[in-house]
Amino acid sequence: MNEVSALEQAVAALRAGGVIACPTEAVWGLGCDPDDDQALARLLRLKARDPAKGVILVAASIDQFAPWLEGLPVELHAPLAASWPGPATWLVPDNGRARPLVRGDHDRVALRVSDHPLVVALCEAFGGPVVSTSANRAGEPPAMSAEQVRAVFGDELDAVLDGPLGGLARPSTIRDLVTGRVLRS
């Protein structure tokens, strides 16, 4: 299957409420439409992930996060603009836009503008951000290849967008936008 049709298949799966896998900057990720509660619940079930933890949203550009950034004080936009695109995930105060399963038990939503070409292409083709959480069952190491994703999840996924990882040694830094506190370095 060529890359264009694989991308189209992944986008169609997202739009149909499916769960997909694709490479990210450091590990393989699982994704779904962040506005589809059934897809979110299914993704969390597949991972056996505690819904209280929340998930990260990735986008192709800061503009795709406009609805999530609405009402954010202007001075808090500078760190986002300075670090995106790239491996910086920011915990941004939720303005009410994030679904409960995206946010988890938190008053923040985790956002990252990716510089991984496949993630960017996926978000552009989908027309907005997608959920991105490591492709693994809770407590297990994340998948590092399409083969590992298929070995863990078999036919439970609706699409696998194959491609190389982004070359980073570890997942993105997670930092609270308001306090500056680093939660994952």
UniProtKB/TrEMBL annotation:
Its EC number is 2.7.7.87. The keyword tRNA processing applies. Its main location: cytoplasm. One of its GO terms (biological process) is tRNA threonylcarbamoyladenosine modification. This is Threonylcarbamoyl-AMP synthase. It is found in: Cytoplasm. It comes from Halomonas ventosae. The gene is tsaC. Keywords: ATP-binding, Cytoplasm, Nucleotide-binding, Nucleotidyltransferase, Transferase, tRNA processing. GO terms for cellular component: cytoplasm. GO terms for molecular function: ATP binding; double-stranded RNA binding; L-threonylcarbamoyladenylate synthase; tRNA binding. It is an enzyme of class 2 (transferase). The keyword ATP-binding applies. Required for the formation of a threonylcarbamoyl group on adenosine at position 37 (t(6)A37) in tRNAs that read codons beginning with adenine. Catalyzes the conversion of L-threonine, HCO(3)(-)/CO(2) and ATP to give threonylcarbamoyl-AMP (TC-AMP) as the acyladenylate intermediate, with the release of diphosphate. Belongs to the SUA5 family. TsaC subfamily. Residues 4-185 form the YrdC-like domain. It holds the Pfam family Sua5_yciO_yrdC. It catalyses: L-threonine + hydrogencarbonate + ATP = L-threonylcarbamoyladenylate + diphosphate + H2O.
